[in-house]
Protein 1
Amino acid sequence: MSLTLHVDGDRWRAHLRDTVAHHPGLVPVTKGNGYGLGLHRLARRAQWLGVDTVAAGTYPELAELHQRFDGSLLVLQPWRPGHGEHQDPAALGVDPDRVVHTVGRLEDLDALADQGRATGRPVRVVLERLTSMLRHGFSGDDLAEAVRRSRRGGLRVEGVALHLPLPSARATLSTRSSRSSHGTEVERLLAEPAVADLASGGGPARQVWVSHLTEAELEVLALKFPDLVLRPRVGTGLWLGDRGALQVTAEVLDAHPVERGDTYGYRGRSAPRRGTLLVVSGGTSHGIGLEAPTGEATLKARAASLARGGLDAAGFVRSPYSVGGKQRLFAEPPHMQVSMLFIPHGAPVPAVGEEIEVRVRYTATSFDAVEIS
Ligand SMILES: *Cc1c(COP(=O)(O)O)cnc(C)c1O
């Protein structure tokens, strides 16, 4: 009864190795559902790739990572006071010296510095600079102040972090120029005196942790800022960057022929025409959701479609499941762990036990099984 992610192991591993080889300083991002693959698997892969750091999304995720990967653990979610042991590496069973905290407010920086001075173990931090994302981070003035305060002891600053919008958003902004407007945003932010001030100390403070920059943009930055060490944080482009290596299947669990007017399902719906109800694995608990309605929106079009026995007019909604190369309709909204599809008469009906293809968002899907060849 499985929704399964199949991974072509050789192809996937080759892509991982290539990506790391083409992005010096790459930091794999291992967060959330592990991009569909599971955090534990990503941690082991990162160890195999030989990188020095992985990025977790949140503190509790460290528990999944720290025994499978033995390098530094950067936490992307900014540290905040008052979260107590939920943000305390030691309380989570993680060696505090391996954890790099992200900080984006002066009061948080002060609190961590106090902690570092009190324990005599400097706390490792990255200073996040606010970008056009407007998610977290210091303003320009506050970053300059943070760099000054970080010299008072208790902290070991490991550079500046910049989180940028996704490339697709940028592509629409930059029409003809090969360089996006966000490439120039990074350049502007890195040219702020606070960054050079921090980097002047040398060592790990020269690092700049960035996301969502193209290879070309990274090359330009490396030339323009030779004193900085770029650390691209990459999740999707690494783990899911070669979609051809990934395939998702659901199992056909049952198939029931129906005539027009037969009732079925939780809502006692009646079949709009002759066909087969296909019960397949995958439901709301896996993250399987309704797709967009199937076009033909006007009332007139719907009436015409209904007269033809059209399934869209019957309120059927497109599903992410494909049978015979065609995306099929849900016979009703997905259940918790299974879904019901309607296969119209005449279309091929797969046998019980057969696997059919499903299109999913990997970061929003929990698979029953991940099979890596
Ligand atoms: C999730 C995340 C990334 C990685 O994003 P992808 O699009 O998966 O590559 C990088 N930086 C930060 C701060 C993130 O939260």
Note: The CA atoms of residues 280 and 339 lie 5 Å apart.
Protein 2
Amino acid sequence: MNSTITRAFNFNAGPSALPLEVLEKAQQELINYNNAGMSIMEMSHRSKDYDEVHNEAIARLKALYAIPDNYEVLFLQGGASLQFTMVPMNFLKEGQRASYVLTGSWSEKALKEALLFGKTAEAASSKENKYRNIPTLNEIQFDQTDAYVHITSNNTIYGTQWKEFPHTGEVPLVADMSSDILSKPVDISKFGLIYAGAQKNLGPSGVTVVIIRKDLLEKANKNIPTMLKYTTHADSNSLYNTPPTFGIYMLGEVLKWVEAQGGLEGIEKNNEAKAKLIYDVIDQSNGFYKGHAELSSRSLMNITFRVADEELEKQFLVEAKEAGFVGLNGHRSVGGCRASTYNAVPVEACQALTNFMIEFQKKHQ
Ligand SMILES: *Cc1c(COP(=O)(O)O)cnc(C)c1O
């Protein structure tokens, strides 16, 4: 089955493209899920139908990443931004210190919240380099007594991405993976905690995925509000209160779709091919287009670039919009251009963008 509706070339940074197959399935099931005479949104979160959706989504995520048994998968709300708060609230105890690697605006925001709870340190920062790179592993400094080390695995705004992760030994490594979760295989056992808002690679906004090592749950602060404790959600299988049921249903469908793409290995190959199309145009443009990120730190999810001539850049964005490309403006804080090539962005959209970029250059240089 295919949709007759025209789909935009959607390069939005988030919320962003969802797989057409998933949208069509949700559309089919919207009015009558599994012959219940109602949509999944309209039924009790304690019902058998919903329970299956919920537990299957957890099981599929565990299987896709081969998440070890000593980890819990949680479905929370409040976005990645609430995780900026929950992480230090749960794990940064009085007198302790947490170390943050600064690689962009989201890491800065995460650090800002931690300052409310305890001592912090910059483990490394690429701010002076306009966040064009990810620090090398041996630049990262932390103490064995730190409560945790925090990183942002993919920097949505600057278009950089960690290619390998630091070994932090006994110190838990915490990662904001909002914009590259599910885009490639990752060894989960390297991390104490991973969090991600859903609206880039996982589904619609409204659900936040947390993958947390169980021993951290035991060490977490006890005297904090119930809803902000990881243990509350871990102890109740993320059903302490009403979860975002439709978002979790959509996440489950996205996970099935990822399985059908050959799992995380298959998805990674697709993502590499898609990003290469666009980076190649930038690199072969003789400086007409300029990438923001250093080559070794380039993101497979968010391709940030400028048109060297500022006036032409404005025109590029106008003409791109007219040609049906959506979401190519850089983040309002940095300007320029950004193509977000998340999992669900089809290779055809990337091909169309590369053709447009080549044509634009021919016309204007
Ligand atoms: C989008 C994004 C966020 C913010 O997510 P919300 O769900 O809107 O709070 C945080 N970190 C990164 C890396 C992001 O890409």
Note: The CA atoms of residues 173 and 190 lie 7 Å apart.
